[in-house]
Specification:
- By secondary structure, this protein is of the alpha+beta class.
- The chain has 8 helices and 16 strands.
- The protein is about 20% helix and about 20% strand.
- Strand 2 and strand 3 form a beta hairpin.
- The longest helix is centred in the N-terminal third of the chain and has 21 residues.
- The protein is elongated.
């Protein structure tokens, strides 16, 4: 619907994701960002590295906001010593993943994973060809040991209970069915062959690859999409047979030949909204586009065993999710003004009607200045003075880049 009057519309907003009760906490761990891609080692400088970090954190927060599973803690039990004999029982577990900076194998022993925590090790390195990023869940192993001494039968029963609880948490985080894990790892191309838009609070620049979109895509892989036995078990020939995805798509969604993505160009609607968009989990992204997570992507998470809820509507008009309705949000709308929604730039269309126009502007203006200003005391421009910003954008270079 294109409104032609400037009536202020409040109370409606899509695509912001702050402030909900969380179950899963997707936490980015920079321990293995030894090249400081997310800081001073970023090829575009420290500020760009910080923007990359902010975008990745926002993508992680998005998933924390839509995943409502309850995961058990993983912690290695203390050694169990017999009260009557010389026996001592011990346990150990390992987490393994590809070092995001070097690509080498990392094996960690007896890390503690907090309840509901899902750890993602992140970094950057040179990725071949036009690959923008790589992501996937990590591996794990566990073992029991001891000193060979004896136990009473009651103590052996206790040891077995400890082992059962421990291995249940390592293998399935205590869940009965479906995908579960301690976490995984993601990496992004840092060799200068990729020109990134790191800033997730404004639309991606034409001719660049949108970091936030790639972060969403790779994090979804690390949550098991296209990269788990639960996914693979639902692949049949060239289609995905998950019940929720099939219901959402209307038939079995077609897969890319690699079977880890939807077929290139598969479309859905932005998850929690109504805007049509190419799915996040097809294998490529067009330069200058932002791709948000779609309903089809979300149903695939459901199919592999996650409990998924739509993103929370927290603050009408807060298009960039900053917690404040202001100039950044206005510029998102004006940057795509008077156009059909550019593929993947659904943020500019909070009304969800497929066109960036007066109804979208009214959603922002209708809640103008709401929330917490990013800088106390900063001058907030009046919206009426800004109506000409960003109306002329250069023609976008539209080239496809590969996601892994
Ligand atoms: Zn991928």
């Amino acid at each position: 619907m294109r409104l032609t009057t400037l009536a202020l519309i409040g109370g409606m907003g899509l695509l912001t994701w702050t402030g909900s009760a969380r179950a899963i906490n997707v936490e980015i761990d920079y321990t293995y960002d030894t090249g400081n891609f997310f800081g001073s080692g970023n090829p575009n400088g420290t500020a760009a590295g910080q923007q990359a970090k902010d975008a990745l954190e926002a993508a992680a927060d998005y998933f924390s906001g839509i995943l409502t599973d309850t995961f058990g803690e993983i912690s290695t039990p203390a050694p169990f010593a017999s009260q009557f004999f010389s026996g001592i029982a011990t346990w150990e577990w390992t987490s393994s993943f590809s070092n995001p900076t070097t690509g080498g194998s990392v094996v960690l022993t007896d890390e503690t994973i907090q309840p509901d925590q899902y750890v993602i090790y992140a970094g950057g390195r040179s990725l071949g060809g036009s690959t923008l990023g790589i992501g996937g869940p990590g591996g794990w192993g566990w073992s029991t040991g001891g000193n060979g001494g004896g136990f009473t039968s009651a103590e052996i029963d206790q040891i077995n209970l400890i082992t059962d609880a421990f291995t249940s948490d390592v293998e399935t985080r205590g869940e009965a069915t479906g995908f579960a894990n301690w976490g995984g790892a993601i990496t992004f191309d840092n060799d200068g062959s990729t020109t990134w838009t790191y800033d997730h609070t404004s639309p991606p620049v034409g001719g660049t690859s949108d970091f936030f979109s790639v972060a969403i895509h790779e994090l979804a892989h690390s949550l098991g999409l296209g990269a788990s036995s639960e996914w693979t078990s639902l692949v049949s020939g060239s289609v995905f047979t998950g019940a929720a995805s099939t219901a959402e798509f209307g038939s079995n969604p077609p897969l890319d030949p690699g079977k880890a993505h939807w077929l290139n160009g598969t479309t859905s609607t932005v998850f929690g909204g109504t805007t049509s968009q190419e799915a996040a989990m097809d294998p490529s992204i067009t330069q200058g586009d932002r791709k948000l997570f779609t309903a089809l992507d979300a149903t695939a998470l459901t199919d592999i065993g996650w409990s998924v809820v739509p993103p929370v509507i927290s603050l009408a008009g807060d298009l960039d999710g900053s917690g404040f309705v202001g100039i950044d949000d206005l510029n998102i709308v004006l940057g795509a003004w008077n156009q059909s929604v550019p593929p993947g730039n659904a943020l500019a269309d909070p009304s969800g009607d497929g066109f960036v126009g007066i109804d979208d502007l009214n959603i922002v203006l209708g809640n103008w200045n709401a929330g917490t200003p990013p800088t106390a005391g900063a001058a907030i421009p009046e919206p009426g003075t800004l109506a000409l910003l960003g109306l002329a954008l250069p023609a976008l270079l539209r080239r496809m880049h590969v996601l892994s």
